[in-house]
């Protein structure tokens, strides 16, 4: 199975989901000037959404900085995004933006820290996703 990279703000919602998933994950720092982690294998990004009523500022600046580096961006395989359903069509907007800009699938959207059911669905979905990625790799190497 591939890895997870995530960003979690002071609210800790994304971190709570990551803890419940129980999968290895690399955290992007909250501090804007902190060194970014070195990622060397394919990963799925889990990212919260922060936007005003018009969708501006949806993707956290640290995530933008991380994905602006071609090396980790080349390893990005999918996005899972969180948000607040109170924002209507802006719900989990960061995931749609990242998926579109990076040409990867938006795998799942969840609200705030996610429910136990969503956590199980994400864990199972990631296992299926990485198995499909492995199948693609085997086919291209044959």
From TrEMBL:
It comes from the Bacteria. SUPFAM superfamilies: Flavoproteins. InterPro entries: Flavoprotein-like_sf, RNR_Ib_NrdI_bac, RNR_NrdI. It holds the Pfam family Flavodoxin_NdrI. One of its GO terms (molecular function) is FMN binding. Probably involved in ribonucleotide reductase function. HAMAP family: NrdI. Belongs to the NrdI family. This is Protein NrdI.
């Amino acid at each position: 199975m591939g890895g997870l990279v995530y960003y979690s703000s002071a609210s800790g919602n994304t971190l709570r989901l990551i803890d419940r998933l129980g999968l290895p994950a690399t955290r992007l720092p909250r501090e804007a000037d902190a060194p970014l982690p070195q990622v060397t294998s394919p990963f799925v990004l889990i990212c919260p959404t922060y936007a005003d009523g018009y969708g501006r500022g949806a993707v956290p600046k640290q995530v933008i900085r991380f994905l602006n580096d071609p090396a980790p961006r080349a390893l990005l395989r999918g996005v899972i995004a969180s948000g607040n359903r109170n924002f209507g069509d802006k719900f989990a907007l960061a995931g749609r933006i990242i998926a579109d800009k990076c040409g990867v699938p938006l795998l799942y959207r969840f609200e705030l820290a996610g429910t136990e059911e969503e956590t199980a669905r994400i864990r199972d979905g990631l296992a299926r996703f990485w198995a499909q990625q492995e199948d693609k790799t085997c086919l291209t190497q044959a």
